[in-house]
Structure formats: C-alpha cells, structure tokens
Amino acid sequence: MATWFHRAALSEPPKLPVWQPLTFGGVASFARARWMRLLLLQSIVAVFVAIAVVVLLSRCWFPVVTRAVQGLSDFGAVRNAQLAWPRGEAVVLAENRFLGLVVDMEASDTTGQIADLQIEFTRDRMKLASLLGYTSLPYPGGIQIELNRQSLDPWWNAWRPAFLFGGAFATVLFLFASWLALATLYALPVRVLASFAGRTASLGKSWRIAAASLLPGAVWMGGAILLYVTGQLPLVGLGFAFGLHFVFAWVYVLGAPFCLPRKGDDVLATGANPFTPEPAAAKQESSPPRPAASSNPFQTPPE
After folding, report:
1. Contact 55, 111 (CB under 8 A)
2. Confidence of residue 73 (pLDDT cuts 50, 70, 90)
C-alpha cells in the first residue's frame, strides 16, 4: 500500500478533457488549451444557438407573417408616417400563440391578445405588446411602404431566406460580442480567485477560463429556445431561463479556478520526477575530470 501511494504521489496528474466545458474541471482545463480550440468550441455553441433561433423564426413567426401577407387587401400603404388602410375596424391579420399581427387604426384594443408577442399597426405608429409590457414606434417619415398583397407577397417570398440567414448571422455576431465583453469582465475575478486558492493562472489563462464559463449558459439558453418552440416551455419560463443562464456563468466563474493545478504542482505537471536518481552518465558529466594514470609505477599520484 505504501509503495502504491508513493507511485501515485509522484505520477503525473491526470489531464482534464478540454472538450467538456460542462464541469468545473472541464472549464478549468481551458487554461492550458490553445486559443483556436476555445474558438472552435465557441463556434460550435454559437451555431447551436443560431439553429435554435432559426427554428423559432421559421416555425413560430414566419408562418404568421406569410398568412398575414397573403390576406392583405389590394390597397394599403404607409405615406408621410401615416397608415392608409381600407377598413376602419380592427382586424387580426394572422396569429398563433407565438406572434400576432393586428391592424387597429384607432388603437381600440378590441381584438384582445392571445400571442406572446403582438404587433399592432395603428394610424400613426406600430405597437409591440407582450407579457413584459408594450412599446410603440412611429412610422418612418419621408418614405413610402406598400402594405398590399401585390407588392408585399413577392417581396416577402424573395427575402424570407435572407431574413433567416440574417437572423442566424446576427445571433452568432451577438454571442461572440457578448462573450468577448463578459470574458474580459470576468477574467479579473477568476485571476483573484485562483491566487486566493493558491492556483496557477495568468491573465490570459483566466480570460480563457472566463470565456469557457459562458458556454454552459449558452447551451442552456439554446435548449430553452427549442423547448419554447415545441410548446414545452411558456414565455415566462423562457424569460426565467434567460436570467438563469447568467447565473450559470457566475457559478462556473466561481468554481472553475479551484480546479486549476496548485502552484507546487508545476514540477509534477511537466512529467519530471524529482525523486528519480540522477543517471550515471549525468553524474560523470557533472563530476570534475580525473587525471590520467601515469605509466611510472614509482611516481606518487597527485592528491
């Protein structure tokens, strides 16, 4: 037993997997990972979240827009920041439980709301209403927007794939920008915690750990979006999941530094055993050279 413990203490500490950022040790292992490996894993997570957003747009929102465009009349436009509409009463163009499109010229609110997000077109502004409240935006002035089936239907069919791609690209761009900002913000706390725990972590290693700490929350958020699309998660649950994904990052930022190797383990991490006897060849090289033996048997050898 003593021999086994001695060998285990002198052996090289096991290396943690760099491809598993779902544990404290996996996040801490990014301190020794290359930048390209972190960038590759960030790209994989960003693509996953972008796919979830594309599924949300294509299955929940875009079908409503398509039905609304196909149900438009032959007359309708926005001119001089005013909506010109052939009917005065409120009408629901299309809706499902995710999105509703309503035209209500007098803002009478007589149509009610069943969608998580409802967009109302009034005479002089556009209103966005949800469980979080509502906001209104005036129509842009100086331009004319056609809101009739003849103009809007072919335009929407032509640009719908571009909007899907734009949504995915915007999601990836937003994720990388937020990861860059948050990792820079969290790098100093990671460095302080590592020093407090007696662990080795430079500022660059701390930044990589902070960046890896954000990935579990992003995966959680992508899964929450997919659950919302399939109807397994309501809008309130989606908002709760959005707030919780920040908590995930804080938990990993606080826990990952304690899984870094200790400062005294640097020698063992290199694989060198300090208790291994020095080879004979090395001893001979380090010892001073001895003088050659004299051929005279009566000569006294030097001290």
Report:
1. no
2. confident
The alpha helices in the chain, defined as continuous H runs, are 2-10, 24-28, 35-56, 62-70, 149-196, 203-213, 215-229, 235-255, 266-269, 280-286
Q: What are phi and psi of 148, to 5 degrees?
A: -125, 160
Close Cβ partners of 76 (under 8 Å, ≥ 6 residues apart)? 83, 84, 85, 86, 146, 147, 148
Q: Both tokens of residue 277?
A: 């006897």
Q: Determine how many CB atoms are found less than 10 A away from the CB of residue 93.
A: 18
Give the count of alpha carbons within 13 A of 151, CB side only.
11
pTM of the complete model: 0.78
Q: How far apart are CA 147 and CA 105, in angstroms?
A: 14
Task: Kindly state the tokens that stand for 164.
Answer: 């899907």
Tokens of 40: 């590759």
Closest C-alpha among 86, 36, 43, 59 to residue 218? 43
- Give CA separation, 55 vs 52, 164, 247, 271, in Å: 5, 9, 25, 48
Question: With 70 as the cut, is the pLDDT of residue 94 above it?
Answer: yes
Q: Is 98 helix (H, G, I), strand (E, B) or coil?
A: coil
CB within 8 Å of 280: residues ≥ 6 apart: none
Beta-bridge partners for 216: none
